[in-house]
Predict the 3D structure of the following.
Amino acid sequence: MKYSSFASATDSHNHSLQTLNVLYEYDDFMESVGRLVDLGCGSEARDLEWWATRTTRGEEQIPLNIQCVGTDLFPGLSTQHKNISYQKLNIESYDTAKRGFDVLWCHDTFQYLLNPYQALRNWYNIANNDGMLVLALPQTVNMEYNTQAFDLPMGHFYNYTMTTLIYMLAVNGWDCASGFFKKDPDDPWLHAIVYKSNIEPMDPLETNWYALAETGLLPETATASVIKHGKCRQRDLVLPWLDKSNTWMGQQ
């Protein structure tokens, strides 16, 4: 990507490791990943290399040999790992004929997309059944020193919150009811891990919160908020994360 929220590729990867290291603890999951795409891998693609070099965690440390694809307008051009390949393309309009990904990894990229709805629809189409999408992007509506901070950094086109993210994911067929979410009170980053459902992407112009609640794609507390208030209130959300902790969005 042309822009980055981090000063260096090392800083970006260190931020990714907060999620990657937790995922690595799930042995059955890691061993089930056959093919992965890094959406917006960047020129150094350190997250992609992490996936490509994973082994089992036992004494033998057998290579998992995950087939990894890095996609970006400015991707890495060479690699020392035979299970890494690169594609130079706009990830928003990913060729939906190129299906078959078990994991779609998207760290510090989603906030730079011009048409995020179309991107999520395309990504739904390239994911395997029950494929997993992992997103990390900064919330742009925050509190800093007890003052509202509504910032729009260079290259961003929209303001994201947890409620907007959940709506966008669910309306494009991503199962948020079985997903995982995190937003720490003093950290602007939104984290989401969701799965491809068997419900095709819907038209956001015709799909309201009530319709989404009926699909069963929303987190339980989001559905309860919609039923009670006629909308999804961020302060009503209590969301699980991978490490068994919960994020109560009322603290944000």
User: Anything to note?
Assistant: The mean pLDDT is 91. DSSP finds seven helices and eleven strands in the chain.
